[in-house]
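Hello, quick one for you while I still have it in my head. I'm working through a protein record and want to make sense of it properly. Would you mind checking whether the tokens look sensible for this chain? I owe you a coffee for this, so here goes:
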Amino acid sequence: MLLKNYDPFYPAFVKGEGRTLTDSKGNTYLDFASGVAVSGLGHSDPELVRALSQQAKNIWHVSNFFHIEAQEECAEQLLAASPFAQAVFFCNSGAEANEAMLKLARRTHYSEGQPQRYRTVTFHNAFHGRTLALIAAAGKAEHLEGFGPPMDGFDCVPLDDDRALLDAIDEETAAVLIEPIQGDGGIHVVPPERLRFLRQVCDEKGLLLLFDEIQCGCARTGRLWAHEWAGVKPDLLSSAKGLGNGIPVGAVLAAPRCKNAFAPGCHGSTYGGNTLAMQVVKATLKRLTDPSFLDGVVARSALLLRHLEALQRRHSRLIAEVRGMGFMLGLALARGSAQQFVLQALHEGLVVVPCSGNVVRLLPPLTITEQEIEQGLERLEKICVAISQ
């Protein structure tokens, strides 16, 4: 028997192809969730299947005690598309990437002769993972309940409160951590001017600016990284989810100030950057960094957003607001529940997922076609009508 930390929706999916999922009874569904922003290139993509299959015939795992050439090749791809960064660390997941990023921030100040700087300023409504450190970072009561006193080292403030931010910074502060688009917190886009202000504050006070792009990165907004739209460069960035299109992988990208802070033995990952994951990452990044691919994401996501805004106007008693950008969108419900909406969507053959604030997340594969967008909108219309009756 499984532990009861999940309460999964049914059906059980047994096959995926492109943007279509098939359940164990043979029913098909249009995927508007991508495994929570993971399967950006859809399901069973031929190029990714080929990359994984070829590597599986050779070698799966050797550990990081030995040189792994594919890690360097993936790092070169990431750095070529991320001008702010000069070094990469690979791990297995988003939570591991955020843990590594926080450790690297502390270690950077340690290497600069300021070991007292260990605290990180975070923001209300954030989500950074489920480890003890990361639930303390986000500070959500529902995630902290039953897990003892929150781990020290984090100061959580309102996103738009300048005074609270500045008051939280002292001689022990090392970094500021933010999601350019809050995902689990309800699909809230941080205004570009806010990200620029945080960069200014960090520069003035000698702090590191950390971007959690685990959900909003990997081309989900039409650029490889969501922060690019604001013209702001972080000191550290965490990535996962869409980086491996379903293969567990995470990464931390480090700017010059941080790139030499880790020394051999001070951090590691048994499975991180193994040969299977790296071959899939290489094939995924080749597509996600293609300018024509990114232009397509921008155009098709704008089409989806326009139709969703029209849907909201027709069903304003049900949908209070459409939020987000790119293919990271949310329907904030005025009544009913996100869970009810998800269940009705499954009944109509559409897969969506809930998040905080009674919001339904729409995270389709980045490869979704205009025809499939139209199909999804037809089903969303039926869902709204059914719930409103």
